[in-house]
Amino acid sequence: MLKLLVIEDHALVREGLVRVLGQLEEEVSVAECPDFEAALNLLENGEEFDLILLDLALPGIDGFVGLDILRRRYPAMPVVVVSAFDDMPNVTRALNLGASGFIPKAYSGEALLGAIRTVLAGNIYRPSGQPTVHLDDEIPLPSGQPRVRPDEIGLSERQSQVLALIVRGLSNREIGDQLQLSEGTVKVHVTAIFKVLGVGSRTQALVAVTRYGIDLRNVF
């Protein structure tokens, strides 16, 4: 029998996930927990699962901290993040922390089941088409989110330095002078940074740095 664990604080969402997951196979057992503490108690009592589905916005704990705890304590149990915060930095950070997949809550039941089957087959699931950050977007973050190192969201050392200088208001030419790079090379780095952040302009990049708590203090 396939055994799954859903960690989700909103009852309606949790109940909906349980109903959909019941369609995976003829015999599926789905346990549900409304918070991270209840899930840890269940796991510490010896319960084992084929897959854990974790919401990021849980009460009392930052979802990324919860993910890290699960991966360290129970490395044999794959964890899939199911979250409404499905922008590229959050997806990348979750996968870098060891999640086996990231499923947006906007997915249909059929798409969710397809993603879960991908993970159960031993693959990593990453959603395509993450939305671009816009200045007027309202993207709430889990309370108490710790600052994020640039490498945690996929930025290289040089890209982190370029982003730090963008935040300081330097032009591509000024960044090139500062880092002893050609202006063309700086443009390549800027394009890569925008892709990682899921943005399309310098202004949106500044917004993303603030919203995601990207720590650029030690990049030089």
CATH topology of the largest domain, by name, is Rossmann fold
Number of strands: 7
Number of helices: 9
Mean pLDDT: 86
Describe the protein's architecture and organization.
The protein has 220 residues and is α/β, with parallel strands linked by helices. It folds into 2 domains: 2-120, Rossmann fold, CATH 3.40.50; 150-212, Winged helix-like DNA-binding domain superfamily/Winged helix DNA-binding domain (Arc Repressor Mutant, subunit A, Orthogonal Bundle), CATH 1.10.10. It contains 9 helices and 7 strands; from the N terminus they run βαβαβββαβαβααααα. It has helices spanning 11-21, 36-44, 63-73, 88-96, 109-120, 157-167, 172-179, 183-197, 202-212, and strands at residues 2-7, 28-33, 51-54, 57-58, 61-62, 79-83, 101-104. A 5-stranded parallel β-sheet has the order 2-1-3-6-7, with helices on both faces. Helix 6 (157-167) packs across helix 8 and helix 7 (172-179) crosses helix 8. The longest helix has 15 residues, at 183-197. The protein is elongated. The termini are far apart. Mean pLDDT is 86; it is low at 130-145.
Structure characteristics:
7 strands; two-stranded antiparallel sheet; 220 residues; 9 helices; 5-stranded parallel sheet; Rossmann fold; Arc Repressor Mutant, subunit A; alpha/beta
Short recap of the structure:
By secondary structure, the protein is of the alpha/beta class.
Protein topology:
Layout: E1 2-7, H1 11-21, E2 28-33, H2 36-44, E3 51-54, E4 57-58, E5 61-62, H3 63-73, E6 79-83, H4 88-96, E7 101-104, H5 109-120, H6 157-167, H7 172-179, H8 183-197, H9 202-212
Parallel strand pairs: 1-2, 1-3, 3-6, 6-7
Antiparallel strand pairs: 4-5
